[in-house]
Amino acid sequence: MTTQTITVIKGDGIGPSIVEAAIQILDKVGCDFAYEYVDAGLTALEKTGELLPQATLDAIARNKITLKGPLTTPVGEGFTSINVTLRKQFNLYSNVRPVISFKGTKARYENIDIITIRENTQGMYSGHGQVVSEDGLVAEATSIITREGAERIVRFAFELARREQRQKVTVVHKANILKSTSGLFLKVAREVAAQYSDIQMQEMIVDNACMQLVMNPQQFDVIVTTNLFGDILSDLCAGLVGGLGMAPGANIGEDCAIFEAVHGSAPDIAGKNLANPSSVILASIQMLEHLGMKDKAEKIKAALTDVIASGDRTTRDLGGSHGTTDFTAAMLERL
């Protein structure tokens, strides 16, 4: 059996410390991965003058599986978001963001278990036709939805629901107003849903979905939606379980996948051994599930559940007073 090589982008700010924690945990459960470390973001910019060096792109393409810490895209002219660039470059059309309630977090809800599946390459996020008039008084951008893109993401959602034995897929849209783009998305979603009689399909307008998520989040199971709505809803869902520190993300394409912490690089606490590594630990659990290593994924999840529930050496955002290394040590002991 050949060893799986994982491309690792440690990232900026707190990235290196939380990614290192996740790798210690992966090694402890006996994953036997080889790691190829490459740079992106500010770290890469300082070393190479580029946010996303060619060597990094080559490694992602070669190894197919990447674990990634948070990256900083400098704010201002001329810098394209690194995440958007990666999604386009590798056609990572599906963004999978699961949120689960963990006992011991400061979350407002219990028994949340929602997967948001966001179309990752089209819609308002694709950056098409961004124009500001010369006098600076008018700005415009174009949203593009294709039948192929809509069908691919909705089918992905229903296949995932079937595989994970989920009961319901909620298609979130704004077809009542955005009759062209959201209308096409909904039309295609209905066609795809008709092929999955074993799974309930629910349609919900995005503004109502936001309200329902706050009032009765337990009614949701799998959500599938377009790029911009998915970006907003997946962060809202993270808020249901205690914030972005408890929310991982996977960007999945036909032959490449990137698993990441979805929160920022938190430069204010970088190097202070304060960060909660849960998001990137959860991302590595997603990665193991993607690789068919479900038993190891379950072990890590059980350890994480126990550490957070017991409050043993948890970080400040979880109500504890410990740091990244103590939290990681508590995880490693359980494994």
UniProtKB/TrEMBL annotation:
EC number, UniProt record: 1.1.1.41
Coiled coil: none
Tagged with keyword Ligase: no
Record-linked Gene3D superfamilies: Isopropylmalate Dehydrogenase
Enzyme class: oxidoreductase
Keywords on record: Oxidoreductase
Pfam families found in the cross-reference section: Iso_dh
Segment forming the signal sequence: none
Keyword Ribosomal protein part of the UniProt annotation: no
Segments forming domain Isopropylmalate dehydrogenase-like: 5-331
Gene Ontology terms, MF aspect: isocitrate dehydrogenase (NAD+) activity
Family: Belongs to the isocitrate and isopropylmalate dehydrogenases family.
Protein name according to UniProt: Isocitrate dehydrogenase
Annotated source species: Alkalimonas delamerensis
Higher taxonomy: Bacteria, Pseudomonadati, Pseudomonadota, Gammaproteobacteria, Alkalimonas
